[in-house]
């Protein structure tokens, strides 16, 4: 028997007739039935179910098969109308504040001409008169039909009163106006830095405005860091973007102390939506945050410092990845090793000593072998459940692949990188060294846990694009036909697990989230199709209809994504401490599970 | 009607027959009756009551007069046996980690000879073989009957293998061994630094071992900062010491980011006992912690960043306090102004802009006048409830005293300083400038809130010593007879309020703690005498029998104070993440109000 209120609430959740309310908590026990539900265990098995009951604490109390009787005492019923329900997606490698801060900077990626870009830059500067610097990204002179780089003077024409600094779409070049060049003290006397280039004006040594690679840091150093209010906005926007993509938990790879304090501010005031598995950007920051070990799970399992992120080498594109043999397209160069063997082991040991988890960026085959060596050695001193992580593991020497399985080393990989990088990878490595490139199937076959992510903001944080790439090794245009190195494709259960249950396990979140199981938080998404009944091209087009975290709806496609914020509303004017503090006391650390949006 | 369980629980709380359990939560509604209770409102009025009811959330639900009927539904009754119950004491100015870290260093204040000190130093070094430095304090060569300073060689005789650095009792000189001098690179070539002296060996320029004033920083710079585990121990010890003194809340004056993270670790794992009103040690730290404003009250009102601590001048003893006229005992010197007027106003303005509270150290009459000027000017731009605080306000020109009342500027003062400093103050100021010295009664008469504290670890954090000093202006020996400048004594209600309700108000804690009133946390102490029936000398001897915070007993004199910890028990050996995390998840931010001791 359902009374009117019940019908409305049921409506609000899934049916098209509904009035909708963002972040409406599923108060009291709520039965979600008539759903096509699936949960994926770490072994890649898909478990189907027809209904689930969520308690008022936002945790799943019952998972019901088609003919199971629901418990008597549920207060509310929500009709799923047969829609597909999946666990919330876990992105195992992204840069949360990077995703958010990008939304606060000027985006030129859509501009089709220099004039359009100049207009957009001027309008942006006028809109934000208080910003001391205008910072942006995404320009591409080829897209503008310009057969040269733009100049500082052309940027001055848009904004001259404040420094402007705009990164090219590939992140390898920056465009500065005269104020920015002056603040960075770049003159005709300035030499090109090691590994960098200062473009010069024709027939002179005067800087032209564009700086390449290492030279960009000359200006980067001058850009003031984001203000705390900018960081709060960035986190809000990042959460909005991710939940709209169906991502409910993420490993934050390289959390600075400022990032961490931003997450805590959000948690303390009830504004932390997604679940963050944090890896500190440095040893001092890890010790400052965690002190004597990982933090507890905070805010009803929404935040935990797991350990530290280390960088062993660079990236393939810029030939920084450390390879066993020189680059095919740069015979004198085998890449960069950012930590020597001793430094790597000391850092791993210092972290493991206090039970911090270690996640190591390793892209080249030399770097991967080095990490596997270190894990092998350290596993003797540090027993127990360590879950060493290798981030990216892009190029692995086939002889090293079996070693992933030996100590359960987690391979944290980003399928979409394969489709973006394949031509570049072929150029860098040549045809004979691709056997261990993005080798998902081979690594998984060793028994090593395979966790997938997006590396956002480097790539879009769309899990279904990642799943499609993992299954097809082809890009959105279906290139190359039949897939690149197709022997390394994986079948549906594997990428689904890598984006859910294994992602949670890789960050010590298993049992809390990652699966739709009794006792776990009700983190789930409603999507428009059943991945098991679709081919990769169609899976890539999956639409997320709703996203729920801890039994609370945080995204509904019918309302569209919430608008991203660009400015804090200034509350200083109508400031009343008493009121202020009462409001805060209600949410502060009280952990009601309600999302304070 | 009471069943057996009830009797036991009742017993556990107050009666002498009881089995006792530290931090036993008052689960369900508990009636504390047959008590001689008093609460003090901010106007200094004492409100008596005979019983109170504490709910299972640790808050007071009823305050009952002698003949009031208790509510029917209380589960437990605890017989106060007529004992005196006061609100938990609020210390409005101390250095929490300073109190704790002092317990981790070697204390030589009890040593009676150089030989005894050497023996104690050697034993301490043997006990802590892992400590890279041996750090201590409290030595006094006069107490040793030595007519000279001790030497580095005499310290080497105790410990030679590690650097040793020991501060004199007055904090104005440090005693280093040869390793410490070598690490600080102090040789015969080293010149005396400005404002400092390197004692030399007889007939040579070689350092003798003792460094005075500014020269001490040469070694201080070499001492490694405390490790996170040391900070955790320090906080544990500080809480143990303070609760044993009846202190249940404190304003932490100068919280570093490391301090703050230590408080959060304790809060996150359910080990934060007392209530901390935090004032950041610097503007960057304030912004890093609070970001866009004060933090919410965290952990059931146990932690909040209120704002920032600023230093405008130095101290009277070292003639650093900024005076309007030169020092009587140093005619060329009027003290130090550590911030000029513009810097002071800019910092106050930056903080107030985001509603952070500002607490300013001002000891000399010039410094106090300067702060009062700044408050007067800034009050025009920053309306609302700002609660500007002046810390110490020791020497105020009588013409400035009325200005405390104008904007409700809070005078945060430490009565015990008056009894410790009076002879020194007479020397520094001469007889004619004492009218506005430690002028509690005159400042309170302006209507300015008067908040009292201890400045621990500079003075012992004993509130009853402070209350006695405030009422008598005489020290523990009753000196001087009749009190020093007795016209500035205050009567009982004033210091009691300054240590409870006004202390809470001074840190935006009113309504949460500081009074025994319905809706406030049950923070109270049981003491062995009624302050209203005793003279100051006897009030100074008050014994705290029990201390309760949020309805949980955290100290019981019958058990004695918990032993202070000197080392972390190493748990890395039997490390089981799953267990570990489950334990943590239970307490993490869940805010059960239970103290996880």
Automatic annotation (TrEMBL), chains A, B:
InterPro entries: Amidohydro_3 (IPR013108), Metal-dep_hydrolase_composite (IPR011059), Metal_Hydrolase (IPR032466), YtcJ-like (IPR033932)
Keyword Hydrolase: yes
GO molecular function, one term: hydrolase activity, acting on carbon-nitrogen (but not peptide) bonds
Pfam families the record matches: Amidohydro_3 (PF07969)
UniProt keyword Signal present: yes
Composition bias, Acidic residues: 568-579, 588-597
CDD domains on file: YtcJ_like (cd01300)
Start and end residues of each Amidohydrolase domain: 79-555
Keywords: Hydrolase, Signal
Residues annotated as signal peptide: 1-28
Region described as Disordered: spans on this chain: 561-597
Superkingdom assignment: Bacteria
Cross-referenced PANTHER family: IMIDAZOLONEPROPIONASE (PTHR22642), PROTEIN LONG AFTER FAR-RED 3 (PTHR22642:SF2)
UniProt protein name: Amidohydrolase family protein
Organism: Altericroceibacterium endophyticum
């Amino acid at each position: 028997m359902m009374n009117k209120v019940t019908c409305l609430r049921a409506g609000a959740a899934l049916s098209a007739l509904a009035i909708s309310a963002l972040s409406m908590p599923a108060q009291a026990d709520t039965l979600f039935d008539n759903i096509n539900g699936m949960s994926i265990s770490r072994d890649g098995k898909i478990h189907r179910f027809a209904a689930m009951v969520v308690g008022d604490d936002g945790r799943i109390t019952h998972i019901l098969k088609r003919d199971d009787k629901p418990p008597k005492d549920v207060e509310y019923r929500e009709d799923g109308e047969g829609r597909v329900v999946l666990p919330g997606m876990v992105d195992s490698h992204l840069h949360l504040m990077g995703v958010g801060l990008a939304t606060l900077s000027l985006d030129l990626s859509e501009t089709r001409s220099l004039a359009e870009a100049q207009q957009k830059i001027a309008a942006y500067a006028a809109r934000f008169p208080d910003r001391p610097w205008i910072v942006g990204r995404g320009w591409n002179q080829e897209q503008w039909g310009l057969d040269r780089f733009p100049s500082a003077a052309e940027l001055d024409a848009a904004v001259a009163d404040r420094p402007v600094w705009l990164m090219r779409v590939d992140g390898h070049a920056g465009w500065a106006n005269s104020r920015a060049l002056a603040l960075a003290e770049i003159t005709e006397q300035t030499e090109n830095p090691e590994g960098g280039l200062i473009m010069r004006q024709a027939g002179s040594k005067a800087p032209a405005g564009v700086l390449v690679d290492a030279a960009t840091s000359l200006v980067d150093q001058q850009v003031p860091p984001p203000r705390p209010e900018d960081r709060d906005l960035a986190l809000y926007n990042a959460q909005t973007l991710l939940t709209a993509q169906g991502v409910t938990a993420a490993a934050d790879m390289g959390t600075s102390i400022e990032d961490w304090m931003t997450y805590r501010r959000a948690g303390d005031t009830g504004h932390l939506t997604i679940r963050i598995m944090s890896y500190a950007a440095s040893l001092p920051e890890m010790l400052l945050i965690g002190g004597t070990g990982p933090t507890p799970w905070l805010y009803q399992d929404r935040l935990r410092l797991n350990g530290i992120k280390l960088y062993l080498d660079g990236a393939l594109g810029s030939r920084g990845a450390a390879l066993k043999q020189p680059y095919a397209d740069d015979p004198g160069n085998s890449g960069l090793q950012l930590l020597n063997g001793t430094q790597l082991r000391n850092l791993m040991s210092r972290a493991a000593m206090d039970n911090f988890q270690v996640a190591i960026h390793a892209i080249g085959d030399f770097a991967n072998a080095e990490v596997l060596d270190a894990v092998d050695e350290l596993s003797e001193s540090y027993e127990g459940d360590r879950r060493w992580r290798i981030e990216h593991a892009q190029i692995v020497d086939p002889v090293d692949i079996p070693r992933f399985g030996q100590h359960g080393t987690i391979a944290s990989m980003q399928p979409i990188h394969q489709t973006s990088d394949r031509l570049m990878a072929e150029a860098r490595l040549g045809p004979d060294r691709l056997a261990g490139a993005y080798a998902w199937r081979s690594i998984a076959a060793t028994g090593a846990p395979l966790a997938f992510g997006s590396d956002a903001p480097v790539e879009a944080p769309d899990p279904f694009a990642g799943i499609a790439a993992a299954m097809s090794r082809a890009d959105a245009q279906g290139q190359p036909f039949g897939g690149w190195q197709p022997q390394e494709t994986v079948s549906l259960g594997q990428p689904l697990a890598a984006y859910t249950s294994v992602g949670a396990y890789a960050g010590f979140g298993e049992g809390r989230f990652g699966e739709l199981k009794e006792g776990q938080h009700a983190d789930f998404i409603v999507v428009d199709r059943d991945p098991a009944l679709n081919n990769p091209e169609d899976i890539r087009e999956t639409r997320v209809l709703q996203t729920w975290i801890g039994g609370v709806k945080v995204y509904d496609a019918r309302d569209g994504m919430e608008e991203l914020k660009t400015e804090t509303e200034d509350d200083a004017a109508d400031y009343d401490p008493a009121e202020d503090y009462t409001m805060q006391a209600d949410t502060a650390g009280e952990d009601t599970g309600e999302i304070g949006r």
